[in-house]
Fold each of these.
Amino acid sequence: MTAAALHELGVAALGRALRAREVSSVEATRHLLDRLAAHERLGAALALAPEAALAQARTADDRRAAGETGPLLGVPIAHKDIFVTRDLPTTAGSRMLAGYLSPFDATVVARLAAAGTVTLGKLNCDEFAMGSANENSAFGPVRNPWDPARVPGGSSGGSAAAVAARLLPAATGTDTGGSIRQPASFCGVTGIKPTYGVCSRWGMVAFASSLDQAGPLARSAEDCALLLSAMSGFDPRDSTSAERPPQDYHAMLLQPRAGASAARPLAGLRIGLPREFFPAALAADVQGALQSALGVLESLGASLVDVSLPRTELSIPVYYLIAPAEASSNLSRFDGVKFGHRAAHYADLADMYAKTRAEGFGAEVKRRIMIGTYVLSHGYYDAYYLQAQRLRRMIADDFQQCFALCDLIAGPVAPSVAWPLGAQDDDPVAAYLADIFTLPASLAGLPGMSIPAGFAASGAGAGLPVGLQLIGDYFAEGTLLHAAHAFQQASDFHRRSPAPLGAAGAR
């Protein structure tokens, strides 16, 4: 196999090539490290570890030579810089943690390493995972490889952009209100947010503890299934971890449905279409791509069912009360005392706190801390935070009523394709509104994923990817991945990649 073809391989394909001894992990690792270094302009990588990565690759090759097998053994990946790592700095995209080295690896990082993956480096993200565009990183924005003048989505934009640009086959991400699904949609890759509690949060820099969840971004549903199988599972160190036995999501993805056939692999699957997910304001190009994708699902045997999620619009105010409140509490630890940035000049302890936090946090993080502190303050806790939690329960109940009528829910990931860099600098609320279709599932703790479903056909965003969102009931990741895999077997959107930076069109 030629080196030029290595970066075109996804996780499953590269795993097969490694097992067949068509390529070594060292060769693949060296090739991808070179690509990451050559594409600095994309802004996707924050730190690379060439020597450590090559050492891991040699170990993987030795394990395979000794007879060990495994679908991820020797496969190079990278981690969103929200997961702590011993051998690489963890910044969470913030000056507050610039240069911070953790004494331990996050559970997700450790489990993927145990499965044999090679860690190439850490990937850029919105500061403390707060953002929908990956413009809030203290170390510069990430650019969308389909159009470098546009955002890749956030907060896992570095992960999505690196996978889309074929800099690596897969990456980890986190999803609090859509931060895996939205960048996956904007960059034309596949991403899944599992049920809350499926992946351990131990070692994940906390934003909103009742919402944060780890998940993979990759080329295909099959690739995501392989990664999710390795990174998920109960962790006694995480009090929110779901006590469930290990799951083989790859086997679930391939297992045929009862009554299905090769021509109709989704026979009997009911897909709900909430009327609130298809408003008149939905961009025409997004609407067109989704309708075509739904037609493909129908041709595969799925039936489409009209359902309703009447509190969809309330998900925005509910989320932007609960998430900032939890962020205000979680980020109080960054005070310059034990670790992280500390102001160089201050008069007393209170002045050190104030200057440290003013210097270390960016504008969006400060905005959310202030909102969260306000809604948790005396006299406002009952009026805002508790009311938001009651509405959150109602939003979750709406989903359960839908799942009495259908197996999965489908709709858009975002109201539009990726917008230009800087377009929302003066209007942060506009970015909040773009989360309307991803927030409900996050608030309910449900699994959801984005799969490439087409491209905008006209207008300023012509040629940009459009994602189809699929949402399942609790712990229905297998059903989600099976449906996504069937769709990808019948389409090629997930196989298309952007042209190299500086060129035009797809390659």
Amino acid sequence: MKNKLCTDIEMALGKGMHTPKDFDILRESIFTRLNVWVSSTTLKRIWGYLNDNVQTRRGTWDILARFIGYRDFDEWCNASG
């Protein structure tokens, strides 16, 4: 399900996440749209660009769902089936 959210974000952004600069662009776009910072490192973890054992906070999933127009992650999950 979380991979689908990443795909939905890439579609909304009109850009795939393949390089460190891509994650910086997403970070800036999130800030511009929501006035909230999400670190590039966190975004890289979510997309699997970095592999470590850090668990992403629920609030971060909510921010990503809000970025594509949903109230929170639960609303996005319900809409995405």
